[in-house]
């Protein structure tokens, strides 16, 4: 094969400078100024309208996972129904499972995983009050198979479970679970799930800061119980929320890897890439005009997958209304199949790497997150900051800012505060019988409008 010869396509166009663009932009704006095009994120990060080679800072974060695992969220009301959904997902394209046992209302893995071969898929437990009990059941389930070929997450997350479901953090069993999985790099006993904070209203920087502080709390707990941090590199997996802000979501996953690498270095751990699971945000989904949720989850899954998350979970579009039906589950699965198989996105690793805009956004978000992480550490760590109300207060503030942007129209939710469908036919779904009742409650962005009936 002959060497590839670059085509000098740009040579046919007149060269322009950044100052040329500024001049044309200001002419178009007429009485406006270029500064009026600068936007600011909730975390105070300024986003310019144009980035150029002068903004080049190189690659900030590692590329992330070279594979894209389509992880199906299993939410049902009985173990039998959960098993039926899980089998359907695996037979029709999903490559792994995320079991929400709180919604299922049972830790009976024997029924939930009936006829499922763990050597052929990854099984992950969403952190829940079942905690150690169900983690032990999953280990027992794996132990009866070829243990070394099994993959998944035990879902032990004492601080996250306390934040989502209430009660005091239960640290029982976390040390034994880590000890029993040392030497099994594909099994992660500890899950740092920061979606509970994001879905309660936390900004991107606060979500990242909470995840770092939680991970450090777990490292300290393990060290206090005789497990050196350097031996726990593969014991962690991190779950982050993905939403409709494509570039900010991409920056968040990239910044998370960069930040956790810094933590590992400070703890004398030989850095390995952070293992990440993305779950499309429950907060961004609407009950009004729920069909728009299909577009929201598509953008979120795209952003998470292309930013290097190991696994991506898409919530069905109808979950805000209750138990998703087969149609919603199929659309959630097929959306990712279209992204990975037909669009070929899974064949490209970190396509945004090197982008002047994305690299700068990643860097600035990482810096803001590290400041907030240090603030949590100054409070005595994540457990203390949760107990004294520091985290809740900060999240209340960022939620009020987001709500204000929505109410003023500066931020848009199609079908809610912009272009509402007056002829909408309501979808009916079976409501869930119970919901998490912890201090950090889910706040859907559309709730203030849906509750008041005040749609624009």
Distance N to C terminus: 60 Å
Largest sheet: 8 strands, parallel, barrel
SS element count, helices? 16
| Mean pLDDT metric | 93
**Which strand-content bin applies to the residues?**
5-15%
Radius of gyration: 23 Å
Classify the helix fraction into a percent range: 40-55%
Strands, total number: 10
Category from helices, strands and their pairing: alpha/beta
The largest beta-sheet arranges its strands as: 3-4-5-6-7-8-9-10
What's the multimeric state? single chain
Low-confidence stretches: none
**What coarse outline follows from CA principal-axis ratios?**
globular
Question: What features would you describe in this structure?
Answer:
By secondary structure, the protein is α/β, with parallel strands linked by helices. 43% of the residues lie in helices and 10% in strands. It has 16 helices and ten strands. The protein has helices at 18-29, 79-91, 101-104, 109-112, 131-143, 158-165, 174-181, 195-198, 204-224, 246-266, 292-306, 326-342, 356-378, 382-387, 390-408, 447-452; strands at 39-40, 46-47, 69-74, 96-99, 122-125, 151-156, 187-193, 236-242, 276-280, 311-313. The chain has an eight-stranded parallel beta barrel with strand order 3-4-5-6-7-8-9-10, surrounded by eight helices. Strand 8, helix 10 (246-266) and strand 9 form a beta-alpha-beta unit. The longest helix is centred in the C-terminal third of the chain and has 23 residues, at 356-378.
